[in-house]
TrEMBL record, chain A:
Residues 7-31 form the UPF0033 domain. Belongs to the sulfur carrier protein TusA family. It comes from the Bacteria. Pfam families: TusA (PF01206). This is Sulfurtransferase TusA family protein. SUPFAM superfamilies: SirA-like.
Automatic annotation (TrEMBL), chain B:
InterPro entries: Metallo-B-lactamas, Mito_Persulfide_Diox, POD-like_MBL-fold, Rhodanese-like_dom, Rhodanese-like_dom_sf, RibonucZ/Hydroxyglut_hydro. It holds the Pfam family Lactamase_B. This is MBL fold metallo-hydrolase. PROSITE patterns: RHODANESE_3. Residues 354-366 have a biased composition (Basic and acidic residues). Residues 354-375 are annotated as: Disordered. Residues 17-112 form the Rhodanese domain.
Amino acid sequence: METNKVLDAKGLACPMPIVKTKKAMNEIESGQILEIHATDKGAKNDLTAWAKSGGHEIIKHEEENDILKFWIKKG
Amino acid sequence: MAITRMNSAEVTKKVFNKEQLFILDVRNENDFQDWKIEGENFEYLNIPYFELLDGVEGILDKIPTEKPVLVVCAKEGSSIMVAEMLSDAGMAVSYLEGGMKAWSEHLEPVKIGDLKDGGEIYQFVRIGKGCLSYMVVSNGEAAIIDATRMTHLYLEFAESIGAKINHVFDTHLHADHISGGRKIAEKAGATYWLPPKDATEVTFAYEPLVDGKDVEIGKVNINIHALYTPGHTIGSTSFIVDGTYLLSGDILFIDSIGRPDLAGLAQDWVGDLRESLYKRYKDLSEDLIVLPAHFMIIDELNEDGSVSEKLGALYRKNHGLKIEDENEFRKMVTENLPPQPNAYQEIRETNMGKINPDDEKQREMEIGPNRCAVR
């Protein structure tokens, strides 16, 4: 998958993964894809709800060795 | 304005004293709707923290200035962020130390009463999750019933009152919370008792708790009499302590009754549940004080924060004990049941010793309300 930007939010606790995601989203264009790596388990629910309320779309989610990966398309 | 930290014990006092509190819960809407801090005079506003990242100006007029304000999130980080933003805007607010995680783990010991020949019985109210556990103390010896996984709290409490824990019981194999019984028994060198019919798959040694079994605590012989009352699980066992207190496990609650479906056998067990509630309990003295393993709603708390009621009063007030028609009863306890507790299968397997999740995982498995009852 083509990714326009990668955000490393590993080791960060809530609320920082979302704070950083929001900032990174401001730096890409609508339709582009942000890839996020996080380790905070709460990030899954929060990113999903945040993306929904902001009109963004989570197009893929993976978990690998305790690392949560998300691909979000900017709305 | 500076922000202040409020801990779970302080919030519990506000619940018990029916004080006013305005809770700004900044978790997701789903999480808030599923489970929140309950208090009779608490007011709520739920706005996820990620909707406040650009500022709190939009919600300032919704937050009162005449009563205390507590910001709550899952672990505490986001509530500190939001509390600081509100403080920068000139408001005096607190945040909940440790968030809902700490709230779920807080236990408040409440003395229920004295025993006839000396000794006391205490109820440990797990206010955030509605779990109730017990300590019976007599002459330097203690027994614990339905302990939660916060084992150090019981061990510390026993030490503080100078009692040695000799017996640890679980009324049944729990599906809503992880039992601390086995661990406490190991640490204190005590005997761990389980009803054998619930323990067919356990991977550890235990003492079988069977109908009619008497266990004595202390030199003055406080008697714990086991009474087989299946229905919530096939092994569910109640205890009569000192001829006065009926520890009803998950069979009978104050305003509801146990659900028979958490081990997948609702249709098989509904008859047992009926027999336990409508026959075995009915044959007991109406003056027994019922002490259940759960409460479901905050209205079930007495003035002092304890949860108890006389058996006779429950036969008059509890809807689940007043259904004459057996078919109607069967329908009520097997149809339209509330959602099952979070991760209940994994919790059962943990309590059997089949899996050993780490502390963080155990915490996560127990998130949410207990949901062991039907009303």
